[in-house]
Amino acid sequence: MARRHLILDCDPGVDDALAILLALASPELALEAVTCVAGNVDLDRTSANARRVLDLAGRGDVPVHAGCARPLMRRVGVDAAWVHGDDGLGGIALPPPAGPLADGHAVDIIIETARRLPAGTLTLCPIGPLTNIALAIVKAPDIVERLAGIVLMGGAAFNPGNVTPAAEFNIYVDPHAAHIVFEAGAPLVMHGLDVTHKAPATAARRQTLGALPAPIGPALIRMLGGYGTGDPFVHDACAVAWLLAPELFETVEARVEVECASPLNLGQTVARVKPRHLDGASVNAKVAIGIDDDGFFALLTERLARLAAGIAS
Ligand code: RIB
Ligand code: CA
Predict the structure, then answer these.
(1) Which H or E element spans position 36?
(2) Annotated catalytic residue 235
(3) Residue 79's closest CA among 133, 132, 42?
(4) Which of 9, 15, 20 to mutate to test the pocket of ligand 1 (most atoms within 8 A of CB)?
(5) Contacts of 79 (CB under 8 A, 6+ apart)
(6) How distant is the alpha carbon of residue 132 from its chain centre?
(7) Which among 2, 8, 41, 54 is positioned nearest to 237, based on CA atoms?
(8) Which pLDDT tens digit goes with each residue over 4-56?
(9) Complete domains list, the chain, with CATH
(10) How many helices (H) and strands (E) does the chain have?
(11) 220 with 207: CB under 8 angstroms?
């Protein structure tokens, strides 16, 4: 089976870290590059954390490119250090990155990769604010029709947000970028809080992950232990899991539009599903609304076990 070429655009971030590890552990995926954006913490930390996580997995060969340090229109006004820890990785204190950032801005790497690979073979998997993706689309509109698709973590179509009652973090940080991405016309799958909140990392699941061989198991325990409150949600790993096992998910087709003006509802992802709501408008996204959460964690655990075994060998 042909491997799916992938760029993960992220803001590590504990759940971003799990998404990166899951992608590395999955032979179906050819991780072309990791591109970073400011989000959970600032760009210096997200781009360093991406390299730290790749080093943890022995994959310092995967290029990491820094992207945008701020949203398109808004000033940086919010981060999620209160969720992910000041270091962005739950306070795990991994060693500093072994290598430097790769040359080239994230936006340019996204464009270059999309133009270099055969049409229909590159999937973008944004799991942070969408600033890099939006700028790539604006700078090089030709890449949209070359993409296999965009599978993102972000939004909340039929449930409250996690930053405001209306908005989820990745969209809220840069709603204008999200608008550009949702309106671009690429095949799009949205993994919002509608689905990610149905897959909590319960204590039993964290214990299973933590029992994996070092260095993966102990790292997961420490990262997840410093992430969120109660049973944390590994939001970003859901987007990567879709690429591996879409049968674990239930989706609905919708037209999703992003609120960019209302101070009250800024960043809301408004999803129109019913014909009378659509009123002739075309759908632009598959929205994930259900998950086999046991199946998801079984996949995550099985793949990370493979990764751990490979590192230990
Ligand atoms: O709302 C959850 C999203 O915001 C996840 O991508 C998490 O990493 C944070 O970026
Ligand atoms: Ca993220």
Answers:
(1) strand 29-36
(2) yes
(3) 42
(4) 15
(5) 38, 39, 40, 41, 42
(6) 13
(7) 8
(8) 999 999 999 999 999 999 999 999 999 999 999 999 999 999 999 999 999 99
(9) 4-312 (3.90.245.10)
(10) 13, 9
(11) no
**Computed over its alpha carbons, how large is the radius of gyration of the chain?**
18
Residue with tokens 């994959």: 59
* Ligand 1 pocket residue status of 39, Cβ below 6 Å: yes
The two three-digit tokens of residue 138, written as one number: 């604006």
- 64: tokens are 């990491």
**151 neighbors 189 (Cβ within 8 angstroms):** yes
Give the model's confidence band at 261: pLDDT under 50 very low, under 70 low, under 90 confident, else very high.
Answer: very high
Residue 87 CB less than 6 A away from ligand 1: no
Q: The whole model's pTM is what?
A: 0.97
Q: Tokens 């793949």 appear where?
A: 303
295 exposed, middle or buried (CB, 10 Å; 0-12, 13-18, 19+)? middle
- At 131, list the tokens: 């600033």
User: Tell me: the pLDDT tens digits for 275-286?
Assistant: 999 999 999 999
